[in-house]
Structures are given as C-alpha cells and as structure tokens.
Prior knowledge:
Number of domains: 1
Largest sheet: 8 strands, mixed
Structural class: alpha/beta
CATH class: Alpha Beta
CATH topology: Dihydrofolate Reductase, subunit A
Strand order of the largest sheet: 4-3-2-5-1-6-8-7
Helix content: 10-25%
Radius of gyration: 16 Å
Number of helices: 5
CATH superfamily: Dihydrofolate Reductase, subunit A
Strand content: 25-35%
Amino acid sequence: xxxVVYTGFVSLDGVVDSPGGGPNEGHRSGGxxxxxxxxxxEAFSLKGEELEDTTALLFGxxxxxxxxxxxxxxxxxxxxxDLPKYVVSSTLAEDALVEGWGxxxxxxxxxxxxxxxxxxxxxxxIHGSAELTRRLAEAGLVDRYNLLVFPVLLGAGKSVFxxxxxxxxxxxxxxxxxxxxxxxxxxxxxxx
Length: 192
C-alpha cells in the first residue's frame, strides 16, 4: 500500500492556509505563514526533504486550481512537474486541467483514492487541500502528517483536523525539531 502524507504549514491552534494567503483565506489573518516569523532556511528544509519521498501529488479541486498554474512555471517546484498528479473532485472538468504540468488524473471519490493507495509506487503527498485531508483522514486513508507548526494563534480559518466527535486516533512521533524562529517540525505516523 502506498502512503498518503499530508504536508502543511499550521498555526499552533490548527489553522492551515496557503503560504501567500490573503483575503481569499476567509479570515483577517490570511497570509500569516511568511508574516508571522523570521525566515530561516533550515526551518523550511522539510519542504526540500519531502521532494525525495514524493512520487505523486494529491489535491482537492480548490488547491489544484490555486497551485497548478503557479507551480507549473515555478523553479522551486520544478521537481513536481513530471510527477503524477491526482485531483479529487466530483465537479472538475477534464478540460479544466492545467496544460504542461505533467500527467494529471481526476479522481471522483474517496473510493478512487483507496484504489490509488493499493497501486504501485511510493508516497503520495497532499499539499493544501484541508477539506480533502479531513475527509481522507476520517476514512482512515492518511498515513502521515508532516507539519511545520508556527508560533501563532489565529482563532479562525481552515483546519486540516476534523472537529467531529470521533474515535481517538493515535499518532507516533517519527521526527521533530525546533528552530530559533519558533517553528517546530513535527512528523507523525498514524497508528493503525
């Protein structure tokens, strides 16, 4: 089985946003990722390390529509260009897929993600896509969380973690590191 790994920037109170953020995040602190701490390259080294493990990318529709046109032409994301990409959406049309960003397939359901996990290959990484990640986690399909936790409390915004009353889910710490700017890297495996 292939692992599904969520990777993201998260506030101490569990809010996730796109790094550029802004008013489209739905709360007044949008864009907090690069505004909240001093930039230290070592605190963001996880993003480079992940490239070695990433064999496919998985997105929800909104994150795909935000990332694909930007990452396609980004030197920082050049390693993603030829990787297989999957977009979980019941509404995205085939002709809405971004040209020139490598192989991309639309998955129409959580069951399609189950089948993807059964296939050959390595880790499938989710960037952004908080709603998709919650839905997959509730279905027992997320295997690992790669988190950069920022020392900021926002009080509002999207969370990658479910607020539903559900059975406890244990996590096992794989790796952690604290940085001088207050960011803490935490990598957790989901215990099954």
